[in-house]
Design brief:
Length: about 200
């Protein structure tokens, strides 16, 4: 209903404040609801709260049999920078469900676990244009860190401007990594094109 939608959006807006026990209680209450709208809101809010308290729940819901909850959990992994979600996100970059696939690709730069950049490079060499564009944007996000106002030992959240566990790189290193990633993507595309031409010749 309309009032429920408004309340759900209100909870999502409030969920940034993970220090308020009242908000935590509201998220917990919403998650216990049988209504999918409230449950989806709760999962999204868990991610947006950036609290490790919800990591296990987010990982569990990423495997949910209910598509809507699975999608919200992948989004939550992106919102919450859930590094532990990286293996599942990498798996989902090859999912048959295109929406989940694209969301997983967009989430990898923020999860930043082992194998994330390699999975993005592979996705950027895909045959599907939407996948390629999403992956290329994700690679930019992965390396798109600001360093003007922070020392090399600082950590910055690239979306919220808050301190976190993301490595700060100077501009030269960022450009070098982007160039390397672009080079690998180009090589994979060229190899795929050559293979296709060789197959046609046969």
């Amino acid at each position: 209903t309309q009032p429920d939608i408004i309340r759900c959006r209100a909870l999502e807006s409030l969920s940034f404040d993970n220090s308020d026990s009242r908000i935590i209680a509201l998220i917990e209450q919403a998650y216990k609801e049988k209504d999918l709208q409230w449950k989806s809101t709760a999962i999204f809010s868990m991610g947006r709260s950036h609290s490790s308290k919800w990591t296990k729940t987010i990982l569990k819901e990423m495997k949910s049999k209910t598509r809507r909850l699975r999608i919200q959990a992948v989004i939550a992994a992106r919102e919450g920078y859930v590094k532990e979600a990286t293996p599942l996100l990498i798996q989902y970059t090859q999912d048959t469900d295109k929406e989940i696939r694209l969301i997983a690709i967009s989430a990898l730069p923020f999860a930043r676990g082992e194998g994330a950049i390699e999975a993005l490079e592979a996705a950027a060499a895909d045959d599907d244009l939407a996948v390629v564009e999403t992956a290329e944007k994700a690679i930019d996000d992965y390396f798109g860190l600001e360093d003007e106002e922070f020392s090399d030992t600082d950590r910055v959240d690239v979306r919220l401007g808050k301190v976190s566990d993301i490595e700060i790189l100077d501009s030269a290193k960022i450009q070098e990594r982007i160039a390397n990633a672009a080079s690998k993507i180009a090589e994979k595309k060229e190899a795929k094109k050559k293979k296709s031409e060789d197959d046609e010749d046969e």
